[in-house]
Design brief:
43% of the residues lie in helices and 12% in strands. It is an alpha/beta fold. It is globular.
Length: 422
């Protein structure tokens, strides 16, 4: 079979770790639903060892089992230690996919672990965690080498090989500080893939502004050396510090750039990916995070298809291909947006039953009884407490159609007796 490039979106894990930002559990759920509709292979949907994530994670797995979330894999993230694996399976018993993370660079060994563990111990701890994960029924285990771009490549080969022996399914190469460039990452991934013959994930950061280039070139190196490639992305490129690889930019690069187009089908992006969902998911994520989409964002920025210069406007009007590499319709753009300027009735944490029924009436949702309407109203109130912004149409529809899962997602109970030691 031909090796392919798959997308693993980490908005709900790495994206929510962006300083001063975050998503409510309902918003994380909607992100998973949108990613599923977009045909993304996997969503790293949260932290199974974290107490406030437990209900959200279990509810989303229930949505998978009931067929609401149809195709996407939902994977957790934890440290590569046995304790975390056991805790993850205890809190989220039906968890099937997980990525286990271990720092590997000398910088981290000396200055993060403070010399308490060495390379040999790192391999021992991570191997044990992988074995226990498999024993506990985890279907697919990815092992992360944090700070891989500053780790000796021969040690990365040794580390990845030992993880493969322990039962790991993929090796995640983490350019944690955005230290690589397209040349170095191609060389390093080629070297690693040549020896380990194991599927490779590219997890890159944007500290030097090369995150998308590094991600797609790293994937190219994996394919060139006979293994599948998995690119980690976040919606709108949000993430720690300068961010991660933007989901839509990566798709555009893989489908529209000259090198990938001229490869005679050698570099194939997962055919399930539906670019027409790009505009919808970018807009929702921007709203949920409260971060505007930059006007120059590829594909979805307000200026992505805007022309003012006389020469450019003339050329675009004659044939838009003169100054547009791809069509805005491909990203789901072009529909007019209607903004109400008159009376507006909304519902939220202080909403009443009359306004609530009016809002849902416009969504063509009828309730069988007053009792059912009041139950959904209570959920809508709590959802607005969580998001602290007006609920979107899709959020309101989700609550009405899946009230049991919504109730679970909105239930967060502090565990003060056993606080996390992370």
């Amino acid at each position: 079979m031909k090796n392919k490039i798959y997308l693993i979106d980490v908005t709900n894990r790495d994206g929510v770790q962006t300083a001063n930002l975050g998503l409510a559990k309902l918003e994380k759920t909607l992100v998973n639903l949108y990613l599923d509709e977009m045909g993304i292979f996997q969503s790293e949907f949260g932290f199974p060892v974290t107490n406030h994530e437990t209900n959200y994670l279990n509810a989303n797995i229930d949505l998978v089992e009931s067929g609401v979330i149809k195709n996407i894999r939902l994977s957790g993230w934890s440290r590569a230690i046995v304790k975390d694996v056991l805790e993850a399976k205890h809190r989220v018993p039906k968890l099937k996919y997980i990525n286990l993370s271990m720092s590997t660079s000398d910088q981290m060994i000396k200055n993060k672990f403070q010399g308490k563990i060495d390379r040999e111990k790192i391999i021992e701890l991570a191997s044990q965690a992988v074995k226990v994960a498999k024993e506990k029924g985890i279907v697919s285990v990815g092992v992360n080498a944090e700070d891989a771009s500053r780790t000796d490549k021969d040690f990365l080969v040794e580390f990845a090989s030992k993880m493969k022996e322990a039962g790991a399914d993929r090796f995640r190469y983490c350019d944690t500080l955005g230290f690589d460039d397209p040349i170095t990452i191609y060389d390093r991934i080629s070297y690693i893939a040549k020896y380990i013959k194991m599927d490779i994930e590219l997890h890159c950061h944007n500290d030097l502004g090369m995150v998308v280039a590094n991600s797609v070139i790293g994937a190219r190196a994996a394919i060139d050396n006979g293994v599948n490639a998995y690119i980690n992305t976040t919606i709108n490129g949000l993430g720690e510090r300068a961010g991660n690889a933007d989901l839509i930019s990566v798709i555009l690069a893989l489908r529209k750039s000259s090198g990938f187009l001229s490869s005679n089908g050698k570099y194939v992006l997962d055919e399930k990916v539906d670019l027409s969902k790009a505009w919808r998911i970018a807009k929702y994520t921007s709203y949920a995070f409260g971060v505007p989409i930059p006007i120059n964002q590829p594909g979805v920025g307000s200026n992505a298809f805007a022309h003012e210069s006389g020469i450019h406007a003339d050329g675009a009007l004659k044939d838009r291909r003169n100054y547009e590499l791809y069509d805005y319709e491909e990203l789901g753009r072009g529909e007019p947006e209607i903004i109400t300027t008159g009376r507006m009735i909304s519902t939220g944490e202080y909403g009443g039953i009359k306004g609530f029924r009016n809002v849902y009436g416009e969504l063509e949702i009828d309730f069988k009884s007053d009792e059912e309407a009041h139950r959904i109203l209570e959920l809508v109130r709590y959802a607005n407490v969580h998001t602290q912004k007006p609920l979107t149409k899709d959020e309101l529809l989700f609550i009405a159609k899946h009230p049991n899962e919504a109730r679970q997602i909105l239930t967060v109970t502090p565990n003060l007796e056993n606080p996390s030691d992370i």
